[in-house]
Design goal:
7 strands, Rossmann fold, SDR_fam, secreted, 3-oxoacyl-[acyl-carrier-protein] reductase MabA, alpha/beta, 3-oxoacyl-[acyl-carrier-protein] reductase (NADPH) activity, SDR, binds NADP nicotinamide-adenine-dinucleotide phosphate, 7-stranded parallel sheet
Length: 256
């Protein structure tokens, strides 16, 4: 049954923890109905929903491993059936550093799954809808600055490949009146990934800290929510932290 809701319907992938969870909470505070996607950690996703609802917002959990095409199709069908539309898609879920990940997993998740998600959700999105791709400076600038923490290069390359594949779809998004933005952040303080990278390659994270104060999860999530509301969404990149990346001659335009 289609629930008629005047609220914007926002799907945040990978919202059971970290940046996705805070992005979901901040969208909840705008009055949107937030779909909190998780892969395995249903309890954590339910806690995020409870926090949003307790704060006066509206949210529900939606489980799907976004690297599984059948899960993506089922999630799109569920959103269509329940809400009849999707206003904002935040492509936040990411991975590849998992201990059990096979060598092709990073590209499957960070490129192929992002494209599958965008294509599956686009028919549900009205004109004025937004697709946001969340990435890191270390991925966004991997071709210009290949010096990333040990073990992170394949992930960074797969995320940049995902960004490029999504950018190739901009004409399709535009033809439906749907905006596309990339939100790229420096290393974000306090996240699990940073603690993991710090254990693997402490000097690399230390060099980012030395470059200036690192953005917090709240800063980064706020930039994602603000970018979703901007009229400027025709391939723009919003940068959060890492001013040294932006002064480099490698950075030509905020459209790429
Ligand atoms: N951390 C940083 O310093 C940093 C900096 C810049 C940009 N970013 C970007 O910000 C985003 C979030 O980063 P984070 O550090 O918050 O990530 P994280 O702590 O590793 O959280 C990952 C989230 O994605 C979900 N997830 C993983 N694989 C999934 C899959 N196949 N299908 C569905 N959900 C999946 C996890 O769900 P389960 O727990 O249920 O498995 C979890 O909710 C990423 O795109 C990352 O590149 C991070």
């Amino acid at each position: 049954m289609v629930e008629s809701t005047a609220r914007r319907v926002v799907l945040v992938t990978g919202a059971s923890r970290g940046i996705g969870a805070d992005t979901a909470r901040q969208f909840g505070a705008t009055g949107a109905h937030v779909l909190v996607n998780f892969r395995e950690k249903r309890k954590r996703a339910e806690t995020v929903v409870t926090e949003i609802v307790t704060a006066g917002g509206s949210a529900s959990v939606i489980g799907a491993d976004v690297s599984e095409p059948d899960d993506v199709a089922a999630m799109a069908a569920d959103i269509q059936r329940t809400y009849g539309r999707l206003d904002v898609l935040v492509l936040n879920a990411s991975g590849g550093l998992e201990r059990d990940a096979d060598p092709g997993y990073a590209l499957r998740l960070n490129r192929d799954a992002q494209v599958d998600l965008a294509k599956a959700m686009l028919p549900l999105m009205p004109s004025g809808g937004r697709i946001m791709f969340v990435t890191s400076h270390q991925a966004h600038f991997i071709h210009e600055k290949p010096d990333v923490p040990a073990g992170y290069a394949p992930i960074a390359r797969s995320k940049r490949a995902g960004e490029d594949a999504l950018r190739a779809l901009i004409p399709e998004f535009r033809s439906r009146g749907v905006g596309f933005s990339v939100v790229s952040g420096d290393v974000i303080d306090g996240t699990i990934i940073v603690r993991l990278l710090e254990r693997r390659d402490a000097s690399s994270v230390a060099s980012r800290r030395a470059a200036g104060p690192l953005p917090t999860v709240e800063d980064f999530a706020a930039a994602i929510v603000t970018a979703a509301e901007s009229d400027d969404a025709d391939g723009r990149t919003v940068y959060v932290g890492g001013a040294d990346y932006l002064t480099s001659s490698a950075v030509g335009s905020d459209r790429g």
